[in-house]
Amino acid sequence: MASHVRLDGRKTTETRPIAISFDKLARADGSARFSFGETTALASFSGPIEVRLASELPSKATFEVHLRPLSGVSAADAKSLSSAIRSSLEPSLFLNKAPRTLAQLVIQSLSPSRGASWGDSLSAAVINASSLAIVNAASIPMRGIVCAVAIGSLSDGTLVLDPTDAETAKLRGTGCFAFMFADDIGEAGTEIDCVWTSWRSIVGGYDEKELLRAKEVARVGARTVYSAIKKSIQGAILGVGTAEQTRDEIMKTDESESSDDDEKMII
Amino acid sequence: MATVTTPITPLPPAPTSKLNHLSQDEQDALKAAVFQRLHPRAYLEKFLAEDVRPDGRSFDGFRDVSVNVGSISTADGSALVRMGNTTVVCGVKAEIAEPELDKEEEGFLVPNLDLPAMCSPKFKSGPPSEEAQVLSDRLNQALLASNLLPLKTLCIEKGKAVWVLYVDATCINYDGNAFDATLLAMVAALRNTTLPKATYNPEIDQTLCSRKTPRVPLKLSPSLPISMSFGIFDSKFVLADPTSFEEPLLDTTISIILGDSNQIVSVSQFGSTMLTVEEDGQDTRRDALAECIEVAKARRAEVANEIFT
């Protein structure tokens, strides 16, 4: 299985080259661009900002995610993905630190979505760009960083990380996994928590073992994404000055988590 | 000298005194209902601490399901599903259309779920809510992933005419877990669907259906997808088949779709599945996904026996 060679010469457990840039969209609090090879997404984050009265929440910030495809208006598939993104990023944010406000994430896909639905690698790029934009804004304290990768299963059972469009046509099963990475929590060092699973068969079904195997391969893949993200933050933001705060806020998770529990009990 | 021990003053007459015309049981029920409205989280926590859910189910208990097929005579196939109080009605309507140029032999399957204002005060009238759109898209993905209806079987004449199946579901009473109920209704409705015999006539470039020849059922794959959903509350409790009261309080939702012989068609999980369990005074964390899959397998067999045999 390990000897499987892919069309572009990658190993099965290798993603396409990851590129990260912070675009400094002038009117947003934070923005970032993330790509796996050609698959690119651009995310912008604003918050805490004023919230519409109808969606105001008394105990936490309202978290909105808007996803725009490369062409046309966003349809049901984009709505579905944006709700998945919201639920996978929400565990990483301390939204209760800014009640009665709005945290708004707008993501623009810079790659065409294949056919009727968003590809899994595009979904992964979208999530990674979103995490980076929120870190770049540094306005909402975070528990960890959510990183996602796409994964596919070939007809012989080989799992391939970050499948390209050409490979996707031959897949038997496909999916996307997102993990939340939090450094310095507990004794185990980095804590990794799966926050989004979407694993579907294309031909026939699969069994539990394959799901767990896929999740493990994805976990390793997500770790490479995490290192890339960490490196980009250290390189691009820490030099700027204000970003000291970002890092502090990410690191402060221990304290914030305990205070979060207190609040839960009061509510 | 004044008396030292004052008798305990009775509690000031609570506003409930207006409710004196009600029996004690009715007053208690009213108090519980008010508590549930004002503090839904605390209300649920109190039940779960006693190892039971507000509706009397165990944590991994599903609600009773009943399916009634063919009740809409104007549709080509239909089903009505009740899952506890959640009621979904689904009708299949067939039309003839031209196929897409790059998929000349494939028909179309268009599932849609409507959550009208009628089914719950949660929903507003007007254009489909975000929740309805998200559910419709997930249902579409589930039907595609399970390959229940191979789209090539909907071909009438290659490149000229194919069937379009509109699988429209409407929720008429919403009490949570609409996804499971709707998928069940759609599968049951597709099983109930029959199509007239259609022939394409190249001379007049039209497709003709005959009323005289008997209608034929769809060529469905024998592996019927059934979805089982779970929710995680407070990183501690895994609740199967959540109701509309439990749903907004959940941190995580998991949907597991199983086909025949427990083949997994799709697993989707939104939020973390790690549970914090107290063991020997220490908090340990474990993943709940594997146990959900086990519960789902047992449940799939039950539902399939009851409904699809």
From TrEMBL, chain A:
<dbReference type="GO" id="GO:0071051">
    <property type="term" value="P:poly(A)-dependent snoRNA 3'-end processing"/>
</dbReference>
<feature type="domain" description="Exoribonuclease phosphorolytic">
    <location>
        <begin position="14"/>
        <end position="137"/>
    </location>
</feature>
<dbReference type="GO" id="GO:0016075">
    <property type="term" value="P:rRNA catabolic process"/>
</dbReference>
<dbReference type="InterPro" id="IPR020568">
    <property type="entry name" value="Ribosomal_Su5_D2-typ_SF"/>
</dbReference>
<dbReference type="GO" id="GO:0003723">
    <property type="term" value="F:RNA binding"/>
</dbReference>
<dbReference type="InterPro" id="IPR036345">
    <property type="entry name" value="ExoRNase_PH_dom2_sf"/>
</dbReference>
<dbReference type="GO" id="GO:0000177">
    <property type="term" value="C:cytoplasmic exosome (RNase complex)"/>
</dbReference>
<dbReference type="InterPro" id="IPR050080">
    <property type="entry name" value="RNase_PH"/>
</dbReference>
<dbReference type="InterPro" id="IPR027408">
    <property type="entry name" value="PNPase/RNase_PH_dom_sf"/>
</dbReference>
<dbReference type="GO" id="GO:0034475">
    <property type="term" value="P:U4 snRNA 3'-end processing"/>
</dbReference>
<dbReference type="GO" id="GO:0000176">
    <property type="term" value="C:nuclear exosome (RNase complex)"/>
</dbReference>
<dbReference type="GO" id="GO:0071028">
    <property type="term" value="P:nuclear mRNA surveillance"/>
</dbReference>
<comment type="similarity">
    <text>Belongs to the RNase PH family.</text>
</comment>
<dbReference type="Pfam" id="PF01138">
    <property type="entry name" value="RNase_PH"/>
</dbReference>
<dbReference type="GO" id="GO:0006364">
    <property type="term" value="P:rRNA processing"/>
</dbReference>
<protein>
    <recommendedName>
        <fullName>Exoribonuclease phosphorolytic domain-containing protein</fullName>
    </recommendedName>
</protein>
<keyword id="KW-0271">Exosome</keyword>
<keyword id="KW-0698">rRNA processing</keyword>
<dbReference type="GO" id="GO:0005730">
    <property type="term" value="C:nucleolus"/>
</dbReference>
<keyword id="KW-0539">Nucleus</keyword>
<dbReference type="InterPro" id="IPR001247">
    <property type="entry name" value="ExoRNase_PH_dom1"/>
</dbReference>
Automatic annotation (TrEMBL), chain B:
<dbReference type="GO" id="GO:0034475">
    <property type="term" value="P:U4 snRNA 3'-end processing"/>
</dbReference>
<dbReference type="GO" id="GO:0034476">
    <property type="term" value="P:U5 snRNA 3'-end processing"/>
</dbReference>
<keyword id="KW-0963">Cytoplasm</keyword>
<dbReference type="InterPro" id="IPR036345">
    <property type="entry name" value="ExoRNase_PH_dom2_sf"/>
</dbReference>
<dbReference type="GO" id="GO:0035925">
    <property type="term" value="F:mRNA 3'-UTR AU-rich region binding"/>
</dbReference>
<dbReference type="GO" id="GO:0071035">
    <property type="term" value="P:nuclear polyadenylation-dependent rRNA catabolic process"/>
</dbReference>
<dbReference type="GO" id="GO:0034473">
    <property type="term" value="P:U1 snRNA 3'-end processing"/>
</dbReference>
<dbReference type="InterPro" id="IPR050590">
    <property type="entry name" value="Exosome_comp_Rrp42_subfam"/>
</dbReference>
<dbReference type="InterPro" id="IPR001247">
    <property type="entry name" value="ExoRNase_PH_dom1"/>
</dbReference>
<keyword id="KW-0539">Nucleus</keyword>
<feature type="region of interest" description="Disordered">
    <location>
        <begin position="1"/>
        <end position="20"/>
    </location>
</feature>
<protein>
    <recommendedName>
        <fullName>Ribosomal RNA-processing protein 43</fullName>
    </recommendedName>
</protein>
<feature type="domain" description="Exoribonuclease phosphorolytic">
    <location>
        <begin position="224"/>
        <end position="279"/>
    </location>
</feature>
<comment type="similarity">
    <text>Belongs to the RNase PH family.</text>
</comment>
<dbReference type="Pfam" id="PF01138">
    <property type="entry name" value="RNase_PH"/>
</dbReference>
<dbReference type="Pfam" id="PF03725">
    <property type="entry name" value="RNase_PH_C"/>
</dbReference>
<dbReference type="InterPro" id="IPR020568">
    <property type="entry name" value="Ribosomal_Su5_D2-typ_SF"/>
</dbReference>
<dbReference type="InterPro" id="IPR027408">
    <property type="entry name" value="PNPase/RNase_PH_dom_sf"/>
</dbReference>
<keyword id="KW-0698">rRNA processing</keyword>
<dbReference type="GO" id="GO:0071038">
    <property type="term" value="P:TRAMP-dependent tRNA surveillance pathway"/>
</dbReference>
<dbReference type="GO" id="GO:0000177">
    <property type="term" value="C:cytoplasmic exosome (RNase complex)"/>
</dbReference>
<dbReference type="GO" id="GO:0071028">
    <property type="term" value="P:nuclear mRNA surveillance"/>
</dbReference>
